[in-house]
Design goal:
alpha/beta; seven-stranded parallel β-sheet; UDP-glucose 4-epimerase
Length: 317
Amino acid sequence: MKYLITGGAGFIGSHLLDALARNADYVVVVDDLSSGSIDNISKWLSSNNITFLKQDLSKTEISPKFLQDCEVVFHLAANPEVRIGSTSPDVHFRQNVLTTFNVLESVRKAAAVKKFIFASSSTVYGEAKQIPTPEEYSPMIPISVYGASKLACESLISAYANTYGFQAIIARLANVVGSRSRHGVVYDFIKKLRENPRRLEILGDGTQSKSYIHISDCIDALLLLLEKAMEKVSIFNVGSEDKVDVKMIARIVIEEMGLHDVELYFTGGIDGGRGWIGDVKTMQLDISKIKKLGWIPRFTSYESIKMAVRDLLKEFP
């Protein structure tokens, strides 16, 4: 089996590469290294069954030779910073929507791809009134440009799958945490406390409560969906079965770093205590659909955060 991973040097993509490469499959990794790192995949670069292609997919399509005989595409390339959308919305259009269009065009012209797996996001639901939120929840009204870009990508993928005959699997992910992550609340808190171990600035009022999933659970879910999802276009929520608030995350990080008497400074946030424009205040996904296929998260949100802190502390210089 030959795979292609866009964003394969990034946080999720590099962990996916680890899982695929261990089974001696042939994998093409495409990444522009804007948010990913070559260090994440360096151990595989000398392997005969791994090809790395540095390319900005928002500007050009994938060369047909890299998709020759490729049956599965994992499309993970995207700009992951939700906050940037409020000041530079063009970033999410180019790096998420336009990139997805170019990847789909590459797949259409190659004609060998049978399955297309896309990493979408819980942000497509916006401020859902139903918690936990099921896949059929509507209307989906994203409150961030990032969420809107992911929803636009889902629509493009659905149209291409139905028009050009490949299978599409869309995974709406909760907040994924773990080693190699370089954005998000856990990374931000560690970075701030390394700079000032006496005071931690927290965006918002600290009551934002969301679901978190460990990277190992996320990869297991993607691989299970690859094997067991059967519809022409299928959509699955992927997350844990609980949520934690920002105050609790701060306490976990402080405890794992061995700090004491840290002053917590809350910015107060905007629009009811959100951390930034587009910040969803409460999020938890209904994962009963993927559980019916046999996937169950091994770790709770609390456990996932704790493990992620320990992993990231080992990686910090």
